[in-house]
Give the backbone structure.
Amino acid sequence: MTALTIQTQPIAGQKPGTSGLRKKTPVFMGPHYLENFVQAIFDVVGTKGKTFVLGGDGRYFNDRAAQVILRMAAANGAARVIVGQGAVLSTPAASHLIRLNQTDGGIIMSASHNPGGPNEDFGVKFNMPNGGPAPESVTEAMYQRTTEITEYHILQAQDVDLGTVGRVMLGAMVVDVVDPVADYADLMESLFDFDKITAMFAAGFRMRMDSMCAVTGPYAVDILERRLGAKPGTVTHATPLPDFGGMHPDPNPTWAHELMAEMMGTDAPDFGAASDGDGDRNMVVGRGIYVSPSDSLAVLAANAHLAKGYRGGLKGIARSMPTSAAADRVAAALGIAAYETPTGWKFFGNLLDAGKATICGEESFGTGSDHVREKDGLWAILLWLNILAVRGDSVADILAAHWAKFGRNYYSRHDFEAIATDKADAMVTALRAGLGDLPGRKLQGMEIASADDFAYTDPVDGSVSAKQGIRVNFTDGSRIVYRLSGTGTEGATLRVYLERYVAGPEGLDRDAQEALAPVIAAAHDLAGITRFTGKAAPDVVT
Ligand code: G1P
Ligand code: ZN
């Protein structure tokens, strides 16, 4: 087979964001687009003699992109690629395979929770040998490379059969097609007390898992229904589809409305959960009660020792800055370190690698631990199940007991989507310019204590990440954070994170939006959200 060298030219805008390069699918399918970016990856990380993992969330173009990437890996001299059957791997499973096989990293094809299809989103990202997303220094080098690229290498060959598990050759490169589920499911079995969860299901515990026509379907069916004995049919939307069945595979109350309706309805199961396009996010719901991701992180951290993989306790807890401080209270009670990082899972990698943190989480429905280097939806769901099996309490009881002990951090995120970029930028510029004048200002009966633009110094490598979100802290412990999304593909998305702490014992069971009303009003006042964006209300509330 001949390795071809194709002449190409830089394509503007191939700048990976917090989660790799994300664009509309037709953009990715354009001439040389995928090829240029993949060559930039290979040029930066090196390919000769290396082994990579390859897989994606099964969205439209996943299968064809995989064939291109395989041909390019072969032409660039890679020794071996481990690819999930059908070119499918959930993001956490890919992270696990990278680590388990001690590979040189991996390429994940996904646009996470964004819709898939011919006119929706596609994405490509590179994960390092530790299993985690490439750090900024590496993605920046990839971007630089895309601006100067003149050629790429690709093998002239037919498609590899990715439908059958086994070893095939592509030129001189080994392609190992593996079962996407088995190793990951074994890892879960090593961390959690499957016997206890099985006994709970056998005793009549009912669950609903909504895989949203995305990648977790086969994983959830194997683990929940086959290994743990949950009733067949527990997993719904279990067949991954290229367009996710037209669903928006983002596990939050807005997009997972079917699950929400069932959990809030009569005859709701004991426990509900959903995961996103590529399987790294999770939402958990109890019968009649929604668990906010910030609370979920805190509850999981406080109870992790009940699961066999975490019996020895936690080394530390890390959360992204906009995530509520509920987890910090657990860390303080456990006498372990609490870390506050910028948004994006990659910032947890160093803390996990250095053994400083065991559990991490983000308000954006991401939770995980040091078992992989990505957030992990099914992991969080299984840890909840393990805790429920050991404690024998309902989700509502567990939350109530948690708040009674630690107090409650009421929390919500309001997203204003598809704003004109210049308007969003103008709003943020105005906010930044006024930060110095904020302390002492009174709003909605609250007083501003401090305001800044979050900057983070990595405690492991000393690298500094500036301008990670504008924080406004009030004297009563309330907080507003403003941030522009780094993952949107249409205009700008403004995220406003709202938090208010109530120590209890009174006032712990209010509706979150209602409890946060003064903070929400203050957030609008301070930033002039409507004036700048033309929107009086958010598009998505979580
Ligand atoms: C969003 C979330 C962030 C998460 C990222 C990738 O990024 O807010 O917590 O790490 O997706 O899943 P954003 O669009 O806010 O930059
Ligand atoms: Zn995701």
Q: What stands out?
A: The pocket of 1-O-phosphono-alpha-D-glucopyranose (ligand 1) is lined by residues 18-19, 112, 320, 343-345, 362, 364, 366, 485-488, 495 (CB under 6 Å). Residues 377-391 form the longest helix (15 residues).
